[in-house]
Amino acid sequence: MINTRMALAGAIALLAACSGGDKATPEEAPAPAADPYPFEPVNLDLWLERLEVNSRELYNARAEVAGALKIEPGERVADVGAGTGIYTLLFAEKAGPSGVVYAVDIAPRFLTLINQRADDLGLDNVVSVLGRTDSVTLPPESVDAVFIADTYHYFDDPAAIMKTVFEALRPGGALYIVDFDLVEGETAPPEKRHVRFGKKGVAAEIASFGFGEAEEINVPGLRENYMLRFVRP
What we know:
CATH superfamily: Vaccinia Virus protein VP39
Strand order of the largest sheet: 3-2-1-4-5-7-6
């Protein structure tokens, strides 16, 4: 199993449609996940405090990170490890009514929270997807871009889950990884001790799964974290 912290770290951790965008059809999107806590209201303020405010760099630089993806109207984007949906919602605004953003997480509660936030904002192009520890559970060649923030280092079996990411991307589609940069020779802070390696190790590992060579993207506001872009050939 993935470390339980992944369920608490969301996308900032790994992987109920709202009403769906023009391109979202029942055949293309998995069924929404049922909330296992139906009688306990989602506490928005609590989760925002835990997962957004406490991840200050990724939260403060969220607009710059989202802008670096250069999402065009009508595109399909998967936010893997969507957590509280801070990036999902930004992507949904950029993709527009004709696009679709799949919020993928393994925690049904986060999907309920994202649906609630999307509904509050009037965004009907967000589709929440219950992922598994070994799969993003998206159809083959269904998305133009996959975004994984503060989640890759939680994968117990990167090869298995990245195989499903590769398959979900259309040929020529882009994979974006945002993660903590573990600098060789430096001691990571306690909350990052589980990070296996920094961006060089991540770049090499993901390339070994069939993706093209990594391109580092300079994002204003990111100092402890980095962004890498890969392309499915």
